[in-house]
Amino acid sequence: MGGRPASVTWTSALSWRMRQHLLEPRGDISATDVVRRLGAVLAMDESLADSAITARQAHGQAGDLARAHASGEVVVAFAYRGSLHYLTPEDAGLYLSVRCAGRQWELRSWVEHYRLEAQEWPDFRAAVREALRGGPLTVPELGEELARHRAYRHLRAVFDDGAGTLIKPLSWQGDLSLGPGKDGRRTVQSLESNPRWAGVPDLEDAGPRAVLAYVRTYGPVTRAHVDYWFGEGLSAGRRRLDRWLAGLADELATVEIEGVEAYVAADDLEAFRAARPTGSVRLLPGHDQWVMGVSTKDVRVTPPQLREWMTRKAHPVVAGGVVSGTWARTGDDVTVTWLAEGRAPVTAIRDEVQRMGAALGRELRVDLE
C-alpha cells in the first residue's frame, strides 16, 4: 500500500465498482456465481434477494436463486448484523469465522440466560449436529430432539418459541443452515451432507481473505467501509482489522479519489485507473448490496436526501452508480420516481423495465413521474 496513490474521480470510481458488482456490464453467469461475487446477499425477503441476483445476470430468470438454494449451491445462514444471508458453501466459512470472533456464547449474560456454560457448548453443538443427521427439522422439532438429553430439557421452551439468538451461533459455527420450508415454517439443516461445504477456517486465516474479497467487489473502499462491513456487520473489532489490513499491505493499493484515500486490490489497480464514468441506469431491489454493502451513510452512493428511502427498503433507481430515484411495481405496472437533478434518462429506464419484465416472464408497463 506504499507509494503515491493513484487519483481518479468518484464518477469513475463508481463505474469501476459497478463493473465489479456485475452491474455494468452484467455477467453471463449463474445465480451462485453472483452470490460468490457479492459475498453475501440478504435473505430476509426472498423476492428482493432474487431480484438482486437477476439484476446482475445477462440472462437470469426469476427463481434462479431458489433453485440454487434447493440444490445446495448456496446456503442460508445468519451472518451480517444477525440477519439471514445467502452465501456460497465454499466461501461461507470465511464470513462466519469472522462473525464468531465475538464468542457471544461465552458472555456471562448468555450463559445465565440459556443455562449453558461455555465449556458445555461443544457438547451442545455436537448434539445439534447429531439431531440434524436425519434431515431438516423445524426449530421446535429440533428442540424436541435435543430434549431427549437431560442436560438440554430446559431449552425445550426456548426452541418452541423459535430459539431466538440461540440458533445464530450454531449457524456461525457451521453446525446448521436454513433449510427448505415445511408446512409454512422454516427448517434448519446440517451442512455436513453438502459436498460443497468447506467448513469454518481459523479466524486469522479467514479474516484477511474475507477483507480482500470485500475490497475486490466493493472497492474502492475507505477504512470506514471496512469498519462498517466487518466491525459493525460482523463484530470483528478494530484492532483485529488493523492487523489484517497491515498483513494485506502487498495485496492492496491505496488510491486517492477527490481527496479521499481508499483501497483497491493491487492487481486491479491498472484496470481501476482506466475506468471511465458510466451513465448506466439500473433498477435494483430494496436493500440491495450496491447500497447496503457500503452503508446508506455513504453520500457518494446515496445522497443524504434519499437516505431515508433506502433505509426503509425502497427500490432504488441507480444512475452512474448513484441513487437517483425509486421505483415500485404493482402487477404489470412499474412506477419510476426520478428524484435527482436534471432530466430523467427515459430511454434507459424503459429499457430496464423491459429487461425486468423478460426476467419475470411478464410484459411490464412503465409510468415515469
Textual characterization of the structure:
The model has no long low-confidence stretch (mean pLDDT 96). The chain is 39% helix and 16% strand. Helix 5 packs across helix 11 and helix 11 packs across helix 13. The longest helix has 16 residues. Among the domains are: 96 residues; 88 residues, no CATH class. The chain is globular, with a radius of gyration of 22 Å. With 369 residues, the protein is α+β, with helices and mostly antiparallel strands. The strands form four sheets. Strands 10-11-12-13-14 form a five-stranded mixed β-sheet, with helices on one face. Strands 1-8-9 form a three-stranded mixed β-sheet. A three-stranded antiparallel β-sheet has the order 2-4-3. It contains 17 helices and 14 strands.
Alpha-carbon distance between the two ends: 46 Å
Helix content: 25-40%
Mean pLDDT: 96
Which regions are unreliable across 5 or more consecutive residues at pLDDT < 50? none
Q: What kind of sheet is the major sheet? A: 5 strands, mixed
Please give the order of strands in the largest beta sheet: 10-11-12-13-14
Q: What is the strand and helix layout of this fold?
A:
Layout (H helix, E strand, L loop, with lengths): L5 E3 L1 H11 L10 H8 L2 E2 L3 H9 L9 H7 L4 E4 L5 E4 L4 H8 L8 H7 L6 H11 L5 E2 H8 L9 H5 L6 H6 L4 E2 L8 E3 L13 H16 L4 H10 L5 H10 L4 E6 L2 E6 L3 H5 L7 E3 L5 H4 L14 H5 L3 E5 L2 E9 L2 E6 L7 H15 L4 E4 L1
Parallel strand pairs: 1-8, 13-14
Antiparallel strand pairs: 2-4, 3-4, 5-7, 6-7, 8-9, 10-11, 11-12, 12-13
Helix pairs in contact: 5-11, 11-13
